[in-house]
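Attaching the record inline, Q. Sequence:
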Amino acid sequence: MSGHPLDNPIWSALSSRLAHFGEGGNEAKRFNADVSPFAAAIDASAQAVASLGAMVPAEGDISLLQAAPPQAPPGVTVTMSALGLQMVAQGLTKGEKRFAIEHLSDAHAAEMLELATLTRPGPFRTRTHALGRFVGIRDNGKLIAMAGERLRTDEFIEISAVCTHPDYRGRGYGAALMRTVGARIIADGATPFLHTYADNTGAIALYESLGFKPRCEVIHAVWARS
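Structure, as predicted:
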């Protein structure tokens, strides 16, 4: 694969720091099903795309996320295709609000899945939390907001699963959690990045206020068996 590693971030992650969470070969790879639905081919060659298509389960689907996803091969249907925006931050703005933020671990997996299922920040499965480091905010012991890391390459780490319980939105929890996660990524010598849908203007405005800038448009596509 040539070009920038974030042009095809799923492939870049599964070919480097997240290889132990995936399966596949030299032409196509996917995350283990309990971790993530995302998959990618090394390029748009017929052989690589056929290998990617073979990874679509008989029951279920796979998701693609890249600047220029390939056309689906015979026997595969595109059930969703949405325009997204990839953003990166070389530094983060400072925040004024202070909250009690705690580190989350495997012991909190059920709570994290419950919050993600309620708020739907993106694909989140039983072992998604294992992809990176997560932090959260509680109210009377209840997890009401969280953010963490998903895709990782040698140079870039994605901030993902940023979500707040509907009853607690508008208090600045998301921004505070993103600053915490982003600062740790930068301290590690990596560059934070993220993805959002291109029509989510509210989220984009928030991310820009934190120091993120658009890098490129991406497509989130879902493939299923025809």
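The first strand starts at residue 22 and ends at 24. Residues 118 and 165 are 8 Å apart (CA to CA).

More tomorrow.
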